[in-house]
Amino acid sequence: MDNETLYQIYIYSFALIILLIIFSNIPNKIISIFKSIGNTIFEKQKNVYKILLASAFLVCLIKMPYWYYQLIRILGMVGFIYFTYLDSRDKFKVTPQLFVIAAIIINPIIKISFDKDSWQCIDIIFSILLFLSIIFEKRLITNRKIENDDYEPE
Fold this sequence. Notes:
By secondary structure, the protein is mainly alpha-helical. It contains six helices and no strands.
């Protein structure tokens, strides 16, 4: 077989795989697997991710290479958008808006430039925001459990 025939076989098999994926139930199964993994792992570990992100912001207070700050911009934006999604699903009132504002400030696509001292203040504010969101979320959950335990149906 020459190279052109192999290339055509490769193209046709690739097209066949794409058609099988599109017209089968495979994408829905894959999506449901990722949703179940996300619901069990990521939501239980949300506070761990918040603590890791807050500590990464605090590391920005010391002198680091430029790539670290860029990495923190990317991770921070993704993290804040993810926390916004989770908290808006849980019907929290304040934290989703604060997380959206934080994601806009730290986004790496359309950069908002500040001087070094301002960025250090922003890093501290982001860390405090993440730690306070953990504390208030735990208080809200315990208050909901207490309210549900006191409720006695007639």
